[in-house]
Design brief:
The strands form three sheets. This protein has a nine-stranded mixed sheet with strand order 5-4-2-1-6-3-7-8-9. It has 22 helices and 20 strands. The longest helix has 25 residues. Helices cover about 35% and strands about 15% of the residues. It is an alpha+beta fold.
């Protein structure tokens, strides 16, 4: 197969049915800078164990079952169709060609006349009419620009037909259809000027789906749809989120995200080659931002790529916000430095989206570094990162951890148990350490503790404002409400044998700010308290700790006694660090591992930086 030159690609001529019963194609090389008219296919390769045979320029080729189905649907009756398909137009066994072609992916999808988004054949577990009702629902939402007194869509009906349509919606959307889980499909959905979604025999313009996601937003729908529609929209939020989350993400990625947020937004997506977790998104950022990845080399290790890209992000951010992503999830890439983001990690996007967003939004509200700019260097091998910073203290006591998965509702009893045990730990520490009457910064211990539990911020989806010393009444009111809620749920579970989490799920929905809903339209099981979002963002999957000098904070769940708290120049929050070699003495050249970012009361606004303490340079590996 002739190798394309610079700025050249292969395109496939899909021959019409009239010329052959079997799928037959021709292949040729064209210039991306010419006027060639071609479409591009966005799809999932699928299982290679059930391959089918096609003919290309007289030669037999094996293709995946999903691609064969796409070609069968796309083949026209009498006209040939020119289309670019990665599986057939790139020599996948030639790493050099693969790298050069991948580097042109943005140009390919920008240049194509239309992107065909193939979602596969409709699942045979439900009727094609049910799938058609899914598209009908999207058309209703996407075509609505002014208030419409519409009939309730079948998707929202409390009927057997409605149940089947909801099954079809699950099969169409995220976690039901593999197209929504692959990293490459993000760029392919965003970049093309025109795109059509095809699901079996059904089709829908991409832009209609984008408009539907916009009208279904909580802050928009009340002005566009009847009350019954809006109430049902809220009821089926978990189902609709399977479509709304990724589609809203497309909008953010196209118009708002910088490189760091873009990479973190989509890290839950899958890739056969984990290096593609970076390469697949390069077309959405300027080429100068990630110079280490621009060559799309498949000859370097994943760990080397991720380390180089993390350094690129630190430079682009001019700060240490990327370190928040480094410890969001446990590393799975062998040999990766603790300070590097492991893009190979994936997680389930459900009730709580990536932890990244909460930490990132909070990070921007503080200035622990006192405004000192980031300075860094790396070792010759690139594995060790040198940062300048200020040592705060060693961790002495660590509380209990409430571990919560992304798919589970918050257990109120578990939250209260963590808070109560943290307060008890603080009282014990004050007795045994003979700590000062008041906290280090002059606050009472109660005030310091309350503000630590909420991370010193009043949160919704984004921070609203910093907390102050007047939160005591709100804080105690929230805890009283949660204790009452916990008791009611326990009583209901005992009396009715119900799922003890089902009311908590209603509370979760009640507090989802982005829906913009009035409380009376939901099951307002718990009266609204402005500290609720703050508390639920700080307690699960974090740990309360106390340092030797009496600082209190909340940090990564893996924090241990003996860990150190540091503030690095360019870091707006403190970081918990761990000695890489515990046998070294404290005054030796420091070699540390990153544990994660933290909130430490009394150091978040540059207090340590203003103390005049001498800065130190440490190596993080």
């Amino acid at each position: 197969m002739h190798r394309p030159g610079d700025r050249e690609i292969r395109v496939l001529e899909l021959l019409p049915r009239i010329q052959a019963v079997q799928i037959q194609c021709e292949i040729r090389v064209v210039s991306l800078d010419g006027d060639e008219h071609f479409e591009a296919l966005s799809y999932v390769w699928g299982d290679r164990t059930q391959e089918r045979q096609i003919t290309i320029s007289g030669h037999r080729f094996q293709v995946t079952h999903n691609l064969y189905a796409a070609l069968s649907r796309l083949r026209q009756s009498t006209m040939k169709r020119t289309i670019w398909i990665d599986q057939l137009c790139i020599n996948q066994t030639d790493n050099d060609e693969r790298a050069r072609q991948v580097a042109m992916m943005r140009d390919i999808y920008t240049k194509c006349s239309c992107c065909v988004i193939w979602l596969g054949e409709v699942d045979d577990t439900f009727d094609i009419k049910d799938a058609a009702e899914v598209f009908a629902f999207i058309r209703i939402a996407g075509e609505t620009t002014t208030f419409r007194n519409i009939n309730l869509p079948v998707l929202f009906e409390d009927s057997e037909h409605g149940r089947r349509v909801r099954m079809a919606f699950k099969a169409f959307s995220m976690y039901g259809n593999p197209w929504w889980s692959r990293i490459w499909t993000i760029q392919e959905a965003i970049v093309p000027r025109s795109a059509t979604i095809i699901w079996g025999p059904l089709s829908l313009p991409r832009d209609l789906v984008l408009r539907a996601a916009h009208t279904l937003r909580g802050d928009r729908m009340h002005s566009l749809f009847p009350q019954e529609f809006c109430i049902k929209r809220v009821k089926h939020t978990p189902l609709l989120r399977r479509l709304l989350y990724p589609v809203h993400g497309f909008h953010h990625s196209k118009y708002e995200d910088g490189a760091l947020d873009l990479l973190m937004r989509w890290r839950h997506r899958d890739a056969t080659d984990v290096r593609d977790k970076v390469y697949a998104l390069l077309g959405l950022v300027p080429s100068y931002v990630l110079p280490s990845a621009i060559g799309c080399s498949y000859d370097i290790s994943a760990s080397t790529l991720f380390e180089h890209v993390t350094l690129d992000l630190i430079r682009d951010e001019r700060g240490l916000r990327p370190l928040l992503g480094s410890t969001e999830m446990p590393h799975v890439t062998p040999g990766l430095a603790t300070w590097a983001i492991d893009f190979a990690c994936t997680n389930w996007v459900e009730k709580r989206q990536l932890k990244w967003w909460t930490h990132s939004h909070r990070y921007k509200e503080f200035s622990a570094d006192g405004g000192n700019k980031v300075t860094f260097s790396t070792s010759a091998c690139g594995k060790a990162l040198a940062l300048t910073g200020l040592y705060v203290d060693d961790v002495r006591y660590v509380g209990s951890v409430y571990t919560l998965s992304d798919r589970d509702a918050i257990d109120t009893q578990a939250v209260l148990k963590v808070i109560d045990s943290a307060w008890l730990l603080l009282q014990q520490a004050r007795s045994s350490q003979a700590l000062h009457q008041n906290y280090i910064n002059g606050h009472t211990w109660q005030t310091a503790f309350q503000r630590t539990m909420i991370g010193d911020l009043i949160m919704e989806e984004f921070p609203i404002e910093r907390a102050d010393d007047n939160i005591a009444e709100l804080y105690e009111s929230l805890l009283d409400t949660l204790r009452s809620q916990s008791k009611n749920i326990t009583d209901e579970h005992t009396n009715q044998g119900a799922n003890p989490n089902h009311e908590v799920q209603d509370v979760e929905t009640h507090h989802e700010h982005y829906l913009g809903l009035q409380a009376e339209q939901l099951n307002a099981f718990v009266p609204r308290n402005i500290l609720y979002e703050s508390l639920r963002g700080m307690i699960p999957n974090h740990v309360f700790f106390i340092t030797k000098a009496g600082y209190i904070g909340i940090g990564p769940p893996s924090t241990q006694p003996g860990d150190q708290v540091w503030i690095f120049y360019g870091g707006q929050v403190p970081f918990v660090m761990r000695m890489a070699d515990s046998t070294r003495s404290a005054d030796e050249h420091r070699d540390l591992h990153l544990v994660g970012d933290a909130y430490v009361h009394g150091v978040m606004d540059g207090e340590v930086a203003r103390d005049g303490q001498a800065a130190q340079t440490v190596w993080i590996s």
